[in-house]
Amino acid sequence: MSGELDLIERLRALPLHPGARNLDDDAAVLQIGGETLVLTHDMLIEGVHTAPGQDAADVAWKLVATNLSDLAAKGARPVGVLIGFTRGGDDDRFVAGLEEALSHFAVPLLGGDTVAGGPPRSHGLTAIGRATHVPVPARSGARPGDAVWVTGILGAALAGYEAFLAGDRPRADAYLRPRPLVEEGIALAPVATAMMDVSDGLLLDAWRMARASGASFALDSAAAPVALPEGRRDEALRWGDDYQLLFTLPAGIAPPLRATRIGAVTRREGDAALILDGESIESPDGLGYNH
Amino acid sequence: MSGELDLIERLRALPLHPGARNLDDDAAVLQIGGETLVLTHDMLIEGVHTAPGQDAADVAWKLVATNLSDLAAKGARPVGVLIGFTRGGDDDRFVAGLEEALSHFAVPLLGGDTVAGGPPRSHGLTAIGRATHVPVPARSGARPGDAVWVTGILGAALAGYEAFLAGDRPRADAYLRPRPLVEEGIALAPVATAMMDVSDGLLLDAWRMARASGASFALDSAAAPVALPEGRRDEALRWGDDYQLLFTLPAGIAPPLRATRIGAVTRREGDAALILDGESIESPDGLGYNH
């Protein structure tokens, strides 16, 4: 992954807008008139971010959902999306899934581009949202003494993925059709000191949040609710695609929704951004899904 | 191209934002906080929109320039861009070209995504601009009696493409490194009744503008300035990539910059959106570059 990190460092050295706070991580924040906009752009490449045989309608849904999840982590209410994709054999299903997702989340299409090209098919989506609380939560705001919380149940997407591989489509929804936690993000934005969505695995994303905050996260892996048998708890914490919200609150503040306290923010000592069940972890390798 | 048109019709049937005026054609217009934003998203696919052996730095430049050209056609001043691209072997050149373009046009990077995937490599860019004049010019505003104008010289990109194929890189800039006419678009926005950038060939884009306006354009092909020998005038008017501005003005109004009057808007009779040198043209086939 060092090539990826080098590239991101180089992109960060470009002329950046002041709102481009964490390229390739956080969504951008833009002041326009009296409003604060949040903008994010994510891509899905066939065969890299999709499983063989995945219905193009599910791909379209996931593309919408993952971008809205980035807005959710900022407490932003979606305003609209721009879509770009390569045309191919299953455009009908792709557009059907796009329609389902946009209708379900009540987000209008603003525009976009369709082009010839591929395989592999390539899909990109830009989502624009309106911040509901300023300052907009960032992943960099966790402070020593804060508690670390997560919504929902982890590993549900992994269980869904395994159901998908087994041909059990009805049980595969957690993987194929994630739900961005837009209302939850809006409820948390005024109280969270830091927030992000868990897209690449709880441990990796916690490592990233701790690092962005210049702190360490001391996590109790047994505290996190998981969707898998106890013997697979570790997998559930390292697999991505759950799109739950990871956030920090000052000690003694209860979250305004159902969530689980999984640890505490501590002062950073050395390189260990993560202290997992008492063990210092100094590298993100193996903590989750890098893509 | 009927597959493409069907697809666009289907996208237009999705829940559209009121600002999504012409999906896959015009940029979107969004009212936010007392300001009017213009948003556009274009993709470039390796091998489809790029020539074999094209430097990735030139691909990055073109990706930025073509999106800024869409903003220029709306009289919008660029605010920032979000980039998405597949990582590959020549990332260094791609990022170098991105940096050159963003610096040259003084546009900051807001964020984006880089992913594994390809070949072919896929690149998408979302550009956000601030409208300088409201109502924002659209391609649908041409009225019978207006004059039809175009900036610059057509076919320069075709000449540049041929220079590129001949290995004459210094003369290939018009093809490889187009210049979006941002200041020209801003100057024209208050006076133009309709405006668009010429990306797919003058005749095809004029046909589209006439059609969007529910009118016909009667064009004098000899009037348009071309960069090629007279015997190749027809090619110059059908080749894309010039990114000049095509616009209409009420009769008797002179444009505030150097431009050429190439015809007049007339009432539509039948299906002929274009009347070229007196000949009615009822189909866009062969008028330019569909992609």
From TrEMBL, chains A, B:
Binding site for Mg(2+) 2: D42, D70
Pathway where this protein functions: Cofactor biosynthesis; thiamine diphosphate biosynthesis; thiamine diphosphate from thiamine phosphate: step 1/1
Name of this protein: Thiamine-monophosphate kinase
Location of the PurM-like C-terminal domain: 143-249
Family designation: Belongs to the thiamine-monophosphate kinase family.
Ligand binding (Mg(2+) 4): D26, T40, D70
UniProt-annotated binding residues for ATP: G112, D113, R139, S199
Organism: Pelagerythrobacter marensis
Binding positions (Mg(2+) 3): D26, D70, D197
Other notes: Reaction mechanism of ThiL seems to utilize a direct, inline transfer of the gamma-phosphate of ATP to TMP rather than a phosphorylated enzyme intermediate.
Keywords (A to Z) from UniProt: ATP-binding, Kinase, Magnesium, Metal-binding, Nucleotide-binding, Thiamine biosynthesis, Transferase
Reactions this protein catalyses: thiamine phosphate + ATP = thiamine diphosphate + ADP
Example GO molecular function: thiamine-phosphate kinase activity
UniProt: Mg(2+) 5 binding residues: D200
Function: Catalyzes the ATP-dependent phosphorylation of thiamine-monophosphate (TMP) to form thiamine-pyrophosphate (TPP), the active form of vitamin B1.
PANTHER family reported for this sequence: THIAMINE-MONOPHOSPHATE KINASE (PTHR30270:SF0)
EC number per UniProt: 2.7.4.16
Domain PurM-like N-terminal: 25-130
Residues reported in the UniProt entry to bind substrate: H49, D241
Enzyme class: transferase
Alphabetized Pfam families for the sequence: AIRS, AIRS_C
